[in-house]
Amino acid sequence: MLLLITGMSGAGKTVALKSLEELGFFCVDNLPPVLLEKFAELIRQSAAAPNAAVVVDLRGGPFFDDLLSALETLDEREIGYTLVFLEARDDVLIARYKAARKPHPLAPDRPVGEGIARERAMLADVRRRADQVIDTSEMRPEDLRALLARRFAPAAGGAKMRLHLVSFGFKYGPPPDADLVFDVRFLPNPHYVPELRPKPGTDPDVAAYVLDRPETGQLMNRLIDFLEFVLPQYEREGKAELVVAVGCTGGRHRSVAVAEAIARHFADRWPTKIIHRDVDRGRRSGEDA
Prior knowledge:
The protein is of the alpha/beta class and 289 residues long.
């Protein structure tokens, strides 16, 4: 699939391109229209990048005038594409420009409204050619991401949001990219059981020590219920990956066992990967895990 993204400046093309990239599309920003045919052929012949998204807009200056003829060439060559046009009301675009404190590219020394009016006139023919017109006036960035995910994720292979589990030790700091962080330091600690201390949380004996406790059972029930609810919500918002971090003191025993249990529960429904970031840290020094 080839998506061509164009439309009004300030209507969300940057957000759209980033969202499509997260959905697995190969993305190119501000491609001169004269190169569209060659790019489309390259994508069509490449098994490595079957889905691509290209932003073509007025930043291309005089090159943008070639867009309509480039679309006609694609049609003549029977190269499939979907032209997506993003727009918003004038008052919304003016407010966005004021918030960003940037001049309009077509009116750098004039009021923003003049640039918007000129841009609308220049894009009128392209808008009429669009397969999909998306008005982002009432949309937050996350709303646009969710809309694009609903429309184009199935075409990108039906990709589901990835669940990334990370166990860690609080003494080393939580993962900076974590979306959700759970603290399991209140659970019984295998570090204080001599025969379990040298073993990691992936060891069956250590896992049983942690997971078979009544308090752990209650924790897991609540964690699983919570994640069962929020995972579809995050995916609906267009999130490509959710990073769930589970932490204990040193990241060697309890957090590892709990993260593994969560991964086992969801692995058959969500693409899941797990990293035990700190499982080997402090092993030789005998630090509290």
